[in-house]
């Protein structure tokens, strides 16, 4: 399934757009990648000239090897934790080791927190990074944060994730925008040119510094007028 985080209507729109653009969608799980073809789980072979792998990635072997309790929902394959992430509590602490925190894709809530493991998204990682920066500032102001300074510090509110929505471009100035908290709740859920405009504007707000925003906006504009610049120096 492509774009599975979107509802059926938006997914169908994306499929139609991709098919219209000449994309052939093949459903299956890749079992093997060979120098000139992919092998799917049903035995089908898909020949290729250039392969671009853009699916999600699992936990790195380094994260898997760490001797910390892992988040719940991990898949065990051949007695090894295949997608396990470092288990954290509601303050993003690794409970078994003092003064160690984990944020982003490498971590997930421990089962004891009763919380769902959050999706591996930039949106989650960014929010956790900001939360942790504020928490560490609070620790420093309370006299902690130094070597051998075992002070009891109030860590403040727990980390709470509020989903701001999902966006995806499907090319040719078309995109999907779903600003609802979940697929069943009310809110904006649209597809087409307006979505593409919202998608672009939203990404511009995430670029660091006004200078870079200006560079990016000018680059988009020149690409629209003159086409994509594929020259390399
Ligand atoms: C193809 C693809 C498309 C995606 N699209 C989206 C999207 O549209 N929207 C969205 O919100 N999210 C998307 N994501 C997910 C998003 O990229 C991640 O959730 C986000 O980057 C996680 O941030 P992070 O800081 O946890 O990890 P990363 O961004 O992966 O940063 C981890 C860093 O640690 C470094 N590192 C790893 N191991 C070591 C080590 N042993 N020593 C030192 N450094 C190390 C890595 O090199 C890397 O720089 C996508 C992911 C993929 C793979």
TrEMBL record:
User: Mind listing the UniProt keywords for this protein, alphabetically?
Assistant: FAD, Flavoprotein, Membrane, Mitochondrion, Mitochondrion inner membrane, NAD, Oxidoreductase
Record's bilayer topology term: Peripheral membrane protein
Listed under catalytic activity are: a quinone + NADH + H(+) = a quinol + NAD(+); a ubiquinone + NADH + H(+) = a ubiquinol + NAD(+)
Q: What is its main location?
A: mitochondrion
Q: Which InterPro entries match?
A: FAD/NAD-bd_sf, FAD/NAD-binding_dom, NDH-2, NDH2-like_C
> The External alternative NADH-ubiquinone oxidoreductase-like C-terminal domain covers which part of the protein?
163-229
Source domain of life = Eukaryota
**Domain FAD/NAD(P)-binding per the UniProt entry, residue ranges:** 2-129
| Pfam families tied to this protein | NDH2_C, Pyr_redox_2
Q: Does the keyword Metal-binding belong to this entry?
A: no
The compartments listed are: Mitochondrion inner membrane
The enzyme's main class, written as a single word, is oxidoreductase
The UniProt entry, under PANTHER family, shows: NADH DEHYDROGENASE, NADH DEHYDROGENASE-RELATED
By sequence similarity, the record places it as follows:
Belongs to the NADH dehydrogenase family.
* Protein name (Swiss-Prot/TrEMBL): NADH:ubiquinone reductase (non-electrogenic)
């Amino acid at each position: 399934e492509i774009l599975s985080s979107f509802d059926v209507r938006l997914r169908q729109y994306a499929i139609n757009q991709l098919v219209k653009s000449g994309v052939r969608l093949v459903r299956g799980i890749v079992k093997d990648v060979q120098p000139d073809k992919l092998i799917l789980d049903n035995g089908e072979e898909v020949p290729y000239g250039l392969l671009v792998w853009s699916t999600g990635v699992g936990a790195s072997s380094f994260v898997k090897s760490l001797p910390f309790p892992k988040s719940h929902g991990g898949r065990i394959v051949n007695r090894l934790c295949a997608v396990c992430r470092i288990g954290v509590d509601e303050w993003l602490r690794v409970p078994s080791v003092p003064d160690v925190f984990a944020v982003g894709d490498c971590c997930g809530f421990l089962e004891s927190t009763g919380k769902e493991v959050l999706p591996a998204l930039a949106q989650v990682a960014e929010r956790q990074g900001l939360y942790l920066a504020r928490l560490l500032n609070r620790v420093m102001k309370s006299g902690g944060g130094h070597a051998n300074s075992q002070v009891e510090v109030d860590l403040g509110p727990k980390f709470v994730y509020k989903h701001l929505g999902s966006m995806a471009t499907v090319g040719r100035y078309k995109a999907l925008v779903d600003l609802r908290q979940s697929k069943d709740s009310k809110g904006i859920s649209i597809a087409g040119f307006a979505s593409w405009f919202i998608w672009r504007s939203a990404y511009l707000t995430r670029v660091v510094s006004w200078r870079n925003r200006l560079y990016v906006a000018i680059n988009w504009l020149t690409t629209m007028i003159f086409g994509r610049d594929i020259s390399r120096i």
